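Journal club prep, notes for RB
We'll compare a predicted complex against what the paper describes. Inputs for the heme C case:
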Amino acid sequence: MGKLRFWMGLLLAGGVALAHAQGNPAAGKEKAMVCAGCHGEDGNSSAPIFPKIAGQHAAYIAKQLHDFKSQKRGDPTMGALAEPLTGQDIDDLAAYYSQQKITIEKTEANALGETIYRTGNLKTGVPACTGCHGFGGNGNPGAVFPQLNGQYAAYVEKTLRDFKAGERGNDMNGMMRALAARMNEAEIKAVADYISSLQ
Ligand code: HEC
Ligand code: HEC
């Protein structure tokens, strides 16, 4: 009997931990009101300088908010906004946005962008983006590789340049910094353009 109660207790504790980690999307929706001016009500941002966060993996959104809060990812605006958020707020916001649907941009066919995305650049040692972000740009939630498809090209370009310059340095093991450093301006522009229309 004691043993059974022990296991029941463990199960319950596990369930509570899981619910916490997943966040509450309804609570997140309320907390997202202060975010809507820039990121849109549903995470499809109002201007290309603000990244879309609709449909992004919850674990990635939560990581970024923790990184802004600790200033591991430096951005004065997001740093100030993330500062007062509790762990629960972050989980709730992440749960809400991850359940929204991203809108895909329309761009012209882009051969250079497609080549970089799918095969990289053998000569300069840029790996294929598909290796971590997937063919459709859906990323990998378990590994915390973000979804990219549909993202505004202007933001993708900016963040690739930030990685290249080391201004954004919150990527595990410098994965993105190392490869962005090997990309030239034409490749950055082309791959950003390709990503924004990727279905
Ligand atoms: C005043 C405009 C503004 C507001 C309000 C705002 N953000 Fe942001 N957010 C930004 C900008 C700009 C960036 C991109 C920073 C950069 O270039 O590194 C960003 C980036 C992010 C990112 C990282 C996206 C990615 O793809 O890496 C997340 C997540 C995020 N914001 C969530 C939120 C949440 C949640 C709120 C509300 C609590 C919020 N933001 C409010 C402007 C804003
Ligand atoms: C070895 C795995 C790996 C490869 C290959 C890779 N990425 Fe990434 N990428 C990551 C990780 C991990 C992050 C998230 C870093 C963080 O935690 O902030 C990321 C983040 C990004 C972001 C920022 C997303 C956002 O919303 O801010 C962009 C843009 C990006 N990658 C583009 C690319 C492109 C373009 C390529 C191919 C040239 C590529 N990546 C190849 C692992 C990879």
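Talking point for the session: The pocket of heme C (ligand 2) is lined by residues 51, 63, 116, 126-127, 129, 131-133, 145-146, 148, 156, 159-160, 170-172, 175-176, 179, 191 (CB under 6 Å).
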